[in-house]
Amino acid sequence: MSDSILFTGADKKLRRQELLLEQVLRTGYVSVEEISRRFNVTPQTARRDLADLLTTGRVRRCHGGMTPAVPFDAMTRRVRRSQNTAAKRRIADIVADLVHDESSVYLDSGSTMEIIAEALASKRRGLTVTTTSARIAVELSEREDFIVHVPTGTVRGGDNSIVGESVAPWLQEQRFDILVMTAGGVSEDGGISIDTPIEVPILTAAVAASSRVILAVDATKLEFMAPERLMDISKINDFVTNARLSRGLMNRVSAAGINLHSF
To answer: Pick from 204, 141, 213: which is nearest to 179 by CA?
Structure first.
């Protein structure tokens, strides 16, 4: 978060820790550095806040910060994996056809992306894959002709995505032929949004490092805004979906010269 929060008075420690607990349960990860920056406290104070919150049993310590003791939104993630699987498999097949053998590819995390990874493993050869999904990394590492890279970070429960403040700077140093991403929502005005703020700098860095960006979403994500706005749809090159676009969104896609692959 860009703005710091300064509390005064006897209850400042309690209020700060309440907000920290709310943030870690919502986003899945908070670092000591972020605590210090957001609340304008020293790293030592941030670590004491972390230690106090550990006693609640609702968070656990991880490298450089804390995550929820119960996996992040695990039930929601399990439900998503079972939804719209037929449409997601068709989307995955189209995406795999857009990727060339021996390309360098960045793969986002999420239930749709896991099915896309399966399609890539079935259809493509010699890929160099970078991903923030530990689940996808393990699956694709079974392919002897694939090279798989993952950043240093914390594996978040539920979706097994790799998060942390070191991920975005590392991605800024990489270069990819293709980025394949999903989204929490795509609004009629072309706004692409995602579920948690910690993913915004990660995806922003990955997009900047990629020559071509493919957005793959099923119909449930259209005409919807997830909590965190990421970017405008004009930043993508290919849009793969099983939905018929609204007139407003179709106009945005056409104006931006985006290749639409729908069924």
So the answer is: 213
* Residue pair 78/104 in contact by the 8 Å Cβ criterion: no
Residue given tokens 């290749």 in the structure block: 259
SS3 category, 253: helix
Nearest-angstrom CA–CA distance, 129 and 105: 5
pTM of this structure = 0.75
Span 77-132, pLDDT tens digits:
555 565 678 999 999 999 999 999 999 999 999 889 999 999 999 999 999 999 99
Angle at which helices 32-39 and 43-54 cross, to 10°: 110
Q: How long a stretch of residues is the chain? A: 263
CATH number of 12-68: 1.10.10.10
Stretch (H or E) spanning 115 = helix 111-123
Question: CATH for 77-262, among 3.40.50.1360, 3.65.10.10, 3.40.640.10, 3.30.9.10?
Answer: 3.40.50.1360
Beta strands in the chain (DSSP E): 30-31, 59-62, 65-68, 104-107, 128-131, 147-149, 154-155, 162-163, 176-181, 185-186, 191-194, 210-217, 228-232, 238-241, 259-262
Instruction: Please tell me the distance from the alpha carbon of residue 68 to that of residue 56, in angstroms, as a whole number.
Output: 11
